[in-house]
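Schema walk-through. Below, the input block comes first and the output block second. Nothing else is stored per chain. Lengths vary across the set, and this one has 600 residues.
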Amino acid sequence: MATFKAPTRDIKFVINEVLDFPSHYAALPCGEDATPDMIDAILTECAKFCEEVLSPLNQVGDQQGCTFDNGKVTTPEGFKEAYDQWIAGGWQGLSHPAEYGGQGLPVSLGLLKSELVGTANWAWGMYPGLSLGAMNTLYVHGTDEQKMRYLPKLTSAEWTGTMCLTEAHCGSDLGQMRTRAVPNEDGSYALTGTKIFISSGEHDLTYNIVHIVLARTPNAPEGTKGISLFIVPKFHIDEDGEMGDFNNVSCGSIEHKMGIHGNATAVINFDGSKGYMLGAENDGLACMFTFMNTARVGTAIQGVAASELAYQNSVPYAMDRYSMRSLSGHKNPDKPGDAIIHHPDVRRMLLTQKAFAEGGRAMLYDAARQADIMMYGNSEEDRANADNLLGFVTPILKAFLTETGIESANYGMQVYGGHGYIGEHGMEQIVRDARISTLYEGTTGIQAMDLLGRKVILDGLKLYRSFSKRLYSYGFSILFKRGRSKYGRKLLAHTFRWNRLCIGLLIRASRNRDAVGAGSYDFLMISGYITMAFFWARMADTALEKLKQNPEDRAFYEAKLETAEFFFERLLPRAIGHAEAMRGSVGSMMDMPLDHFNVR
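--- output ---
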């Protein structure tokens, strides 16, 4: 079974030493209580809950899965008891407003909590995780009455929430959706339709589930312009916020899946179910993006979680598995072979996992810092700049970190060899659980088109220039600093190449629009490697400064520098390969006639 130990030392390094969260929190109106002592206490208690309660249930959830019987879903053994502890601990409302029962702490603290929960037990963590998206959507787009009716019970975790987008015939093309919302005389709507792939859509953890649902009103425009958003509770809610009668929201079935067996992926049927419009009519997709962006960042956490959990379990196995002899001489002469950690290819896999886990963590926490500023910044300009930066990096975080998470999970299996392929050690579960991450909330290809098509080209390069300026600025700041110059040179060189590629692609796209789709995946992966290089340069810079102070934990900072060296020498060059592929002709991808695909 895979085991989990909360990486609190690395978390504290990123938030306290690299990103300076203490000063950041001190500048926020909601950060008064987010003192270093408070953060340490939160991390300690959350780590304890995740290590002692959630992690032991990870394999249980995978083996037992959820069961479906006549519309009712039962979660695996121990899930309900763990969720009751979650409620008792007040964890759900950590970063939500006090007026709805939350603790009012900065948004970023919620992300730290989500990483620990997700790494310990991703399937369980999806139940409260989906609720966070529903809460954020209600908070941003709901009326005062809607907020007071739903947010207190969602904040306490007594109710959970979902988002209901996908239908069987349309997948990610939501313009084709058919669910209908017909006005009632009391201002509500009667929703009829079926949604599929609804994570946490039905379960026994709470009595009520609040669904956030996309549907069409009568005479709505065709396509995405005619979509509205609705709040549809499983049970009616009275004016005092208490549960009433059943609202004709039923579970038709749950999916039999490759992974995340402990989370119910449901088919949800709405049969004249009463719903309430959230936001303006026909503005549903824009409102739903609040939920989707929350979910996309949450999915990026899954990528980091897969890298972290795979690394944690790969290292001890590589230390204790003896096979063959090292090419550079015997390392364990008293054993029948040397520990496989002495073999370069095994080290390649371990260091790749480590670089992706720790680099991805820094990327995520910086995004969380921007989310704090977007919500609570001191000026409108600060909030707008943070919103723009977060919007630009979200597809990079979601797609790049999940792709690298799957790679890390597969390396975990590879380190174990044949033992990794069987269920006993838990490595194949990490692979199966992580595989969905590049699919839901928009596939890697959709994220790539969002980044290149919407965030770069349609935006007129404004966000792109602002982000690349951040990389240039930091690269030049360390270019002539001892021990950092090599990182500065490589960061600047890759950023410059990235800029040239972008301009070249724009020129090609003006002649052939398929150039955007043909180059978008490689552009996104280049963006991910360069962004991670920026943060590895910052972490190396911080580690060098700390080593000057002769700290007791020198090994920690030395390991940071060694991992940074590996990233820049062995992983960042992948961006050059993606650049070459991006320069490839559009015709090599698009000119083959359809009937030739079947010629074998």
